[in-house]
Design brief:
elongated, Helicase, Ruva Protein, domain 3, two-stranded antiparallel ribbon, 2 domains, about 35% helix, Rossmann fold, alpha/beta, about 280 residues
Length: about 280
């Protein structure tokens, strides 16, 4: 079957890797598993024999048809022909349960997919994800504060999940081989909003402002208007709320989530006007 470049299709052909990815989900015998971008079913074939229910989300109509035919005798297997960015995870997860996710994320929409997964995690729909992505993106997801790679994606990921780097695959593990290496991460969804005393929607917006321009200091980013209808914080407002743990000229990428949450809480009375 021909690859469709516009869909970012690079199919996993390494048998050891596909087994390792499936194994990284743990015991799924009583679980619902959602697979993103199953392709020809390299990982699907393993999971179909292991989990209670498997939902494969495939955008390519030809691949979806291939999967339906291949797994036609597997009643626990469902192929959903859809764009994962438009799927409502709440409609896939049984009430009162959580699901696990596995997938080789298309490189060109990795970040939007991760944001969708984090939102589902906040809503209590997902427990774990084992996902593969471009090595450089995985490095940003897992980067610690103070590292050059640390940024908005890092902070958002670590606010929503415990991130573990599992292994990296060379281009030869795929057909056709991509031009980049790919890294597999395991995400244990564990949102920290309640722990840090912040609301998810407001703090997410605050993080976007903190990391708006990487070369600016945190204070300068917060003084700048977030969008046409929002004003920035004044120097006096920031000075009154500024925690002692944050140096005056600090940049957001140098700070862990705890001091950023402390600043957000201190700015609370001003938040409605500033966001």
């Amino acid at each position: 079957m021909m690859r469709k470049p516009k869909l970012g299709q690079n199919f996993l052909i390494d048998d050891a890797a596909r087994s390792a990815i499936a194994d990284a989900l743990g015991d799924v015998s009583a679980r619902t598993v959602i697979e993103i971008g199953p392709g020809h079913g390299a990982i699907t074939a393993i999971l179909a024999a292991r989990c209670r229910r498997l939902i494969a989300i495939e955008l390519d109509p030809a691949l979806a048809a291939e999967l339906r035919f291949r797994f036609r005798n597997e009643p626990q297997m469902e192929v959903l022909e859809a764009d994962v960015l438009e799927v409502d995870f709440g409609e896939l997860v049984p009430p009162g349960e959580t699901a696990d996710v596995v997938g080789n994320l298309p490189y060109y929409i990795t970040s939007p997919i991760l944001m969708r997964l984090f939102a589902a995690g906040v809503n209590g729909l997902l427990a774990r994800a084992v996902v593969m992505m471009q090595r450089e993106v995985a490095g940003r997801v897992s980067a610690a504060s103070g590292c050059r790679e640390y940024g908005l994606l890092s902070a958002t990921a670590q606010m929503n999940a415990r991130v573990e780097t599992l292994f990296t695959l060379p281009p030869a593990a795929f057909s056709p081989p991509p031009e980049v290496f790919s890294t597999v991460l395991r995400l244990e969804f564990a949102p920290r909003f309640r722990e840090l005393g912040v609301d998810s929607a407001g703090f997410d917006a605050f993080l976007h402002r903190c990391f708006a321009q990487k070369r600016k200091t945190l204070a300068n980013n917060l003084r700048a208007a977030g969008h046409a209808s929002a004003r920035g914080y004044s120097a006096d407002e920031l000075r009154a709320a500024w925690p002692a743990a944050i140096p005056p000229l600090a940049r957001a990428e140098s700070l862990a989530l705890e001091p950023l949450a402390a600043l957000y809480r201190a700015l609370g009375p001003l938040r409605r006007d500033a966001e």
